[in-house]
């Protein structure tokens, strides 16, 4: 048994110039209101590369009340705190910033608020009406803006979420700690918000605070990091609990219905239905067979990608995994099905989650490049024949009509953005592969020198490295590239057979237009604006086909072809997904849930 009641953690990263004084002041202040054996001071040294570890080790050797907890790698501010709290001995857990910006005269109130049992969580505040901190504008304005966003979006009652002066009851922390996902600067904000949501007693009290050192708005951490974490927490607390299987299916069905209504508002729906009823069912069935032939190619391509990353699997199993994930994208919002594939290969073949997600990302790059290439080649052909001006007229509404043009404009804008982004990403990856310099970390480093930037750079580096791995294997790159061309060529042939089912001869000009319409339609539906891209695909397809086909295909017919083409492809996907789920014994809803979690690897540490 230990007599320690209060554990104070000092998160330290490269604090060689200040840590000794901070520990001394902390010990003196605690000794003023606690017995010497009732508290401990823990230096949570977070992978420092200066003399902080040596100083912390010496301080721990000189005073039994001081402990040094070391991490061999950067954990981030939140990760370092959580790691230290888990190893602390006290029932009251406290931390404050090592720059001692908060007046230490408030330490007794902070500790006793929790130690007395009156509150579960206590936090100092620089923005209480009775004691507002005098902060420079470059610190105060971002802080007020950030806290306003947290209060508004996450419905928090607190005024200051990031004051580095907090205390927790151990039992409360054992509940809240595992629930906090962020490991960096958003950690304490998330903990305070979830403490309120779970009914813990939270005390916010005013403190005297004086800024120490210089500060700046950090682009990666403050804009990208904090903003994305606020949205992620809002989704987790306010949206995700309401997304049941029934709600997902209902919302997906409603969105499809709305998309179809919006798409046909400028047409007589009966005209579209009549056009569809006149299609040759035998040719529509043949289009489904052709599209089904592309799926074994998808499985073989995925096999080649995984093999280049060191994993050997059978193409038939991987075809089933692709079927299941694509079916998930038709059922669940925000392309949640993409993560399902990582779950399937992890659960059935023990391929780690990071490798599963990386292989999926590599596949997406090849898909986008292939579709962009097909669209670009045909676009150059249109420009050479003078048809590009006609296309521009369609997009601006001069040919297809206002509402049809509006649908096409949105789809083509999305397609252009996705295509350019794919080309830009590959150019950057190739440039990085051909130099010894770390362009990813160098670029991110110019935007930010914060630890969160290291985290972002690490994620990007892993993705770039996986793409380079596949690209560096000449045979694998060739196989994956050729398979991608074959897959999307079959996608186009499916649409051309649907044209034939509506009675149109497959002339060279119609084939060229079909390639362009299908390619742009597939680029348009990459962003998850509707389930399965319904609406965007049809809009892009229609607004391209109407002005460019010499046979003068009307809006109603072009829309009917697009609907049947997309319906055939989605039907084949769903049938294949259902069969694959039965074959591999995979529950789609369970796969979506399980794919959201990944095991944390605990870093090595010394105490």
Automatic annotation (TrEMBL):
<feature type="transmembrane region" description="Helical">
    <location>
        <begin position="485"/>
        <end position="504"/>
    </location>
</feature>
<keyword id="KW-0472">Membrane</keyword>
<comment type="similarity">
    <text>Belongs to the glycosyltransferase 2 family.</text>
</comment>
<feature type="transmembrane region" description="Helical">
    <location>
        <begin position="247"/>
        <end position="267"/>
    </location>
</feature>
<dbReference type="Pfam" id="PF03706">
    <property type="entry name" value="LPG_synthase_TM"/>
</dbReference>
<dbReference type="InterPro" id="IPR022791">
    <property type="entry name" value="L-PG_synthase/AglD"/>
</dbReference>
<feature type="domain" description="Glycosyltransferase 2-like">
    <location>
        <begin position="7"/>
        <end position="176"/>
    </location>
</feature>
<dbReference type="InterPro" id="IPR035518">
    <property type="entry name" value="DPG_synthase"/>
</dbReference>
<feature type="transmembrane region" description="Helical">
    <location>
        <begin position="365"/>
        <end position="384"/>
    </location>
</feature>
<keyword id="KW-1003">Cell membrane</keyword>
<feature type="transmembrane region" description="Helical">
    <location>
        <begin position="279"/>
        <end position="297"/>
    </location>
</feature>
<dbReference type="GO" id="GO:0006487">
    <property type="term" value="P:protein N-linked glycosylation"/>
</dbReference>
<feature type="transmembrane region" description="Helical">
    <location>
        <begin position="539"/>
        <end position="564"/>
    </location>
</feature>
<keyword id="KW-0328">Glycosyltransferase</keyword>
<dbReference type="GO" id="GO:0005886">
    <property type="term" value="C:plasma membrane"/>
</dbReference>
<dbReference type="InterPro" id="IPR029044">
    <property type="entry name" value="Nucleotide-diphossugar_trans"/>
</dbReference>
<keyword id="KW-0808">Transferase</keyword>
<keyword id="KW-1133">Transmembrane helix</keyword>
<protein>
    <submittedName>
        <fullName>Flippase-like domain-containing protein</fullName>
    </submittedName>
</protein>
<dbReference type="GO" id="GO:0016757">
    <property type="term" value="F:glycosyltransferase activity"/>
</dbReference>
<dbReference type="Pfam" id="PF00535">
    <property type="entry name" value="Glycos_transf_2"/>
</dbReference>
<keyword id="KW-0812">Transmembrane</keyword>
<dbReference type="InterPro" id="IPR001173">
    <property type="entry name" value="Glyco_trans_2-like"/>
</dbReference>
<feature type="transmembrane region" description="Helical">
    <location>
        <begin position="411"/>
        <end position="433"/>
    </location>
</feature>
């Amino acid at each position: 048994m230990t007599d320690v009641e209060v554990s104070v953690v000092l998160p330290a990263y490269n604090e060689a110039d200040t840590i000794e004084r901070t520990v001394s002041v902390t010990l003196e202040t605690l000794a003023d209101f606690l017995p010497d054996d009732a508290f401990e001071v823990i230096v949570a040294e977070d992978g420092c590369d200066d003399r902080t570890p040596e100083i912390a080790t010496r301080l721990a050797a000189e005073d039994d009340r001081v402990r040094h907890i070391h991490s061999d790698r950067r954990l981030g501010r939140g990760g370092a705190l959580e790691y230290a709290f888990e190893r602390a001995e006290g029932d009251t857990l406290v931390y404050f910033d090592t720059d001692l910006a908060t007046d230490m005269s408030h330490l007794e109130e902070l500790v006793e608020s929790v130690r007395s049992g009156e509150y579960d969580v206590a936090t100092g505040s620089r923005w209480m009406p009775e004691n507002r901190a005098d902060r420079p504008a470059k610190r105060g304005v971002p802080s007020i803006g950030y806290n306003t966003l947290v209060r508004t979006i996450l419905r928090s009652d607190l005024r200051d979420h990031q004051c580095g002066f907090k205390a927790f009851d151990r039992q409360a922390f054992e509940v809240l700690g595992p629930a906090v996902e962020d490991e960096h600067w958003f950690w304490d904000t998330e903990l305070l918000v979830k403490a309120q949501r779970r009914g813990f007693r939270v005390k916010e009290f005013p403190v005297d605070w004086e800024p120490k050192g210089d500060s700046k708005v950090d682009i990666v951490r403050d804009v990208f990091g904090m903003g994305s974490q606020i949205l992620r927490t809002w989704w987790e607390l306010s949206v995700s609990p309401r997304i049941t299987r029934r709600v997902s299916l209902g919302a997906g069905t409603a969105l499809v219905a709305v998309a179809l209504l919006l798409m046909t508002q400028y047409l007589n729906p009966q005209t579209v239905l009549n056009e569809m009823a006149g299609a040759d069912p035998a040719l529509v069935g043949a289009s489904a067979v052709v599209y089904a032939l592309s799926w074994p190619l998808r499985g073989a391509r995925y096999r080649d990608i995984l093999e280049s990353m060191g994993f050997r699997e059978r193409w038939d199993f991987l075809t089933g995994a692709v079927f299941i994930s694509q079916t998930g994208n038709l059922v669940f919002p925000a392309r949640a099905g993409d993560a399902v594939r990582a779950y399937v290969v992890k659960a059935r073949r023990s391929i780690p989650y990071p490798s599963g997600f990386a292989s999926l990302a590599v596949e997406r790059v090849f898909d986008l490049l292939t579709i962009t290439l097909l669209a670009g080649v045909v676009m150059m052909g249109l420009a050479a024949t003078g048809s590009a001006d006609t296309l521009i007229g369609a997009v601006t509404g001069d040919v297809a009509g206002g509402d049809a043009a509006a649908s096409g404009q949105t789809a083509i804008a999305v397609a252009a953005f996705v295509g350019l982004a794919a080309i830009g990403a590959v150019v950057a990856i190739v440039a990085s592969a051909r130099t010894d310099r770390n362009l990813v970390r160098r670029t991110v480093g110019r935007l930010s020198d914060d630890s969160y930037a290291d985290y972002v750079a690490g994620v990007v580096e892993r993705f770039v490295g996986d793409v380079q791995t596949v690209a560096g294997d000449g045979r694998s790159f060739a196989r994956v590239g050729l398979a991608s061309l074959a897959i999307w060529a079959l996608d186009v042939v499916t649409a051309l057979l649907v044209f034939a089912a509506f009675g149109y001869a497959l002339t060279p000009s119609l084939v060229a237009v079909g390639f362009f319409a299908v390619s742009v339609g597939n680029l348009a539906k990459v962003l998850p604006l509707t389930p399965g891209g319904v609406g965007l695909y049809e809009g892009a397809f229609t607004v391209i086909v109407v002005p460019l086909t010499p046979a003068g295909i009307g809006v109603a017919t072009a829309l009917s072809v697009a609907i049947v083409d997309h319906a055939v492809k989605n039907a084949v996907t769903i049938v294949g997904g259902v069969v694959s789920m039965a074959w591999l014994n995979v529950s789609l809803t369970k796969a979506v849930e399980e794919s959201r979690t990944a095991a944390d690897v605990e870093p090595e540490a010394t105490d």
